[in-house]
From TrEMBL:
UniProt domain EF-hand: residue ranges: 473-500
Keyword set includes Chloroplast: yes
Protein name, as recorded: GTP diphosphokinase
Source species of the chain: Paspalum notatum var. saurae
GO biological process, one term: guanosine tetraphosphate metabolic process
Matches recorded under Pfam families: EF-hand_7 (PF13499), HD_4 (PF13328), RelA_SpoT (PF04607)
Reaction it catalyzes: GTP + ATP = guanosine 3'-diphosphate 5'-triphosphate + AMP
Main location: plastid
EC number(s) on file: 2.7.6.5
Subcellular compartments: Plastid, Chloroplast
Composition skew (Basic residues), residue ranges: 15-32
Primary role: Possesses calcium-dependent ppGpp (guanosine 3'-diphosphate 5'-diphosphate) synthetase activity in vitro and is able to functionally complement E.coli relA mutants. May be involved in a rapid plant ppGpp-mediated response to pathogens and other stresses.
Length: 575
């Protein structure tokens, strides 16, 4: 995390508010927005000549409000409508109002960018507003820009509890004298059993952000942190169902721990990547079309899903080391997974296995199956109950050799057990080898979701914002709920962000198209469209833009995080 000195904090623990000069705060984006046509028409003075189609937003407070609204919209969109209740929106808005002024001068604005990147990861993991708010504020706590007293007073006890738990988790590896496999496994079980499970997920998002910025720390710290992530946090991410997050943690750790091996594997995979990824998409569509057109499957299956995957750097290296293979001898770089949902009507007790074996027959008709590589765990399940049918396919063409493609075939229920149930390989990687431990962890996730829903759901008759024509950001600024943002309400937000009334007056003048002294929802919508344009402009930092703009599929559809998210969504609905 960033270690730059924070702004001075007085004895009471609350950061001093300062009115910043017109030069504006460090920017996360290029803040050049088009002037609304109505505002331009209402202005008595003619516009200055310019060759650009855009004009800068007022400096200082105007920029801060734009950053606040932009970040708030980004996070609520990623959360999804069912999780972004009015209570959740208010909590996120308060967290952003506390974090933005606290972090905008820290480390040239990079601390704020990282706080928002962590929050984005948590939103993509479909965490609730309390966890996302804790992710926003953790960076500010680490650099001393805010105190835990500020969090309790302005955000709430629950978010402060999550931050306290995550700070305890941060120091968990120091409990170990030796970081070997046995002690790391014991620590993972301890973390999953004795810490708030949502704090564990928060810490995973923080570790991912740390690994993405590890180039900026000394070499010995790179090695120490990478070993901790490889042994403790990447398996934990597997255990809670954040498979893609775990893969990125593994690859980043591999890069720092074994840079020469990483470069070797990376170069070879890159040489295969463009061709192989195109093949995955092609074969996925071919297989899905063939399955959907099969009359026998139509009679016994109501839904078919085909997923593709490409092997990670770390997983490829493990294959090379374990079996002593050459890179070109790694056979399962390409992979597809077929998930079938049998119909529930009639005599359906045997339709799941029957559908899986029928899918196998269709695959045999499409491609050349490799003899001796088929593993039927449906007919003969593993001891822990794991069921799936694994098939290896040769997709080479005359004169062009390609790696083998592995296809896994299972029902939706088999997949649920394989990913988040007692037969879960991900739980095993997380150190939970006892089926009873897996059941207990699932129960903990469900209980955490229910408690969060009690705090975040909207009560019947409350202003949930449904059907009133106002978007969530507008509702946060319209404090009295009269359908307009007054100059007093805008000034209050400006002061919370460390700016002053003069900035509020200037922004009101720019956005108030009909000059009635307040902002309607339509006028505010125009402002938000300008912010969207701002966010769409090319950013100098391609890596940060990728984090903030791309929707990452970081949770498995049957993993424990998905269990949490579904339970939370169900509990937030009030009958």
């Amino acid at each position: 995390m960033a270690t730059a000195a924070a702004a001075t904090v007085p004895a009471g623990g609350r950061p001093c508010r300062r009115v910043h000069p017109r030069r504006g705060p460090p920017r996360l984006h290029r803040l050049r927005l088009p002037v609304p046509a109505a505002a331009a028409a209402a202005s008595p003075s003619p516009p200055a000549p310019s060759t650009s189609a855009t004009a800068p937003l007022p400096e200082g407070g105007g920029r801060l409000v734009a950053e606040l609204v932009g970040a708030f919209n980004e996070l609520t969109e990623r959360m999804g409508e069912d999780l972004a209740t009015s209570s959740s929106s208010r909590l996120l808005f308060r967290a952003l109002k506390l974090a933005l002024p606290a972090l905008r001068d820290v480390d040239g604005g990079r601390a704020l960018a990282r706080a928002l990147a962590v929050a984005t990861t948590l939103a993509d993991l479909q965490m609730d507003a309390e966890v996302i708010s804790a992710g926003i504020l953790r960076e500010a706590l680490d650099v001393g820009a805010i105190s835990m007293r500020d969090v309790k007073a302005q955000i709430g006890i629950s978010t402060a509890h999550l931050l306290h738990e995550s700070l305890r988790l941060k120091h968990a590896p120091s409990k170990l004298d030796v970081l070997d496999d046995e002690s790391a496994s014991a620590l993972r079980r301890f973390c999953l059993s004795y810490y708030d499970i949502r704090a564990v997920i928060l810490e995973l998002a923080l570790k991912l952000d740390m690994m993405r910025h590890l180039d900026y720390v000394p070499k010995y710290l790179q090695l120490m942190k990478s070993l901790e992530v490889m042994k403790i946090y990447a398996p934990l991410a597997h255990a809670v169902g954040a498979g893609n997050l775990s893969l990125e943690l593994e690859d980043l750790s591999f890069r720092y721990l074994f840079p020469h091996s990483y470069d070797h594997v990376d170069q070879w995979l890159r040489s295969q990547e463009s061709d192989c990824k195109a093949l995955i998409n092609l074969y996925k569509e071919q297989l899905l079309q063939a399955l959907q057109c099969d009359n026998e499957l139509k009679d016994i299956v109501q839904d078919i899903s085909v997923q593709g995957r490409y092997k990670s750097r770390f997983s490829t290296m493990k294959k090379l080391v374990k079996d002593g293979r050459k890179p070109e001898e790694v056979k399962d770089i390409l992979g597809l997974r077929v998930i079938l949902e049998p119909r529930c009507d009639g005599d359906s007790s045997n339709w799941g296995p029957r559908a899986c074996h029928r899918t196998h027959e269709i695959i045999q008709a499409l491609w050349k199956e490799v003899p001796g590589r088929t593993k039927d765990y449906i007919t003969r399940p593993k001891a822990n109950g794991y069921q799936s049918l694994h098939v290896a396919i040769d997709v080479s063409e005359p004169g062009k050799m390609r790696p083998l493609m592995e296809i896994q075939i299972r029902t939706k229920e088999m997949h649920r057990l394989a990913v988040g149930g007692e037969a879960s390989h991900s739980l095993y990687k997380g150190g939970l080898t006892d089926p009873g431990e897996a059941k207990r962890l699932r129960a903990i996730m469900l209980a955490a979701a229910e408690l969060a829903a009690l705090r975040l759901r909207d009560l019947p008759g409350s202003d949930s914002g449904v059907g009133n024509g106002k978007n969530p950001a507008f509702r946060q600024l319209d404090k009295n709920g009269d359908g307009r943002i007054s100059i007093e309400e805008l000034t209050e937000v400006m002061e919370d962000l460390g700016a002053g009334g003069e900035d509020a007056t200037e922004l009101m003048h720019l956005l108030d198209a009909n000059s009635d002294g307040s902002l309607s929802s339509d006028e505010f919508d125009s402002f938000q469209r300008q912010i969207e344009l701002m966010r769409s402009l090319e950013d100098d930092d391609d890596h940060y833009r990728k984090i903030l703009k791309e929707k990452l599929h970081t949770i498995d559809s049957a993993g424990l995080i998905h269990v949490y998210r579904k339970e939370l969504g169900d509990k937030l609905i009030v009958g």
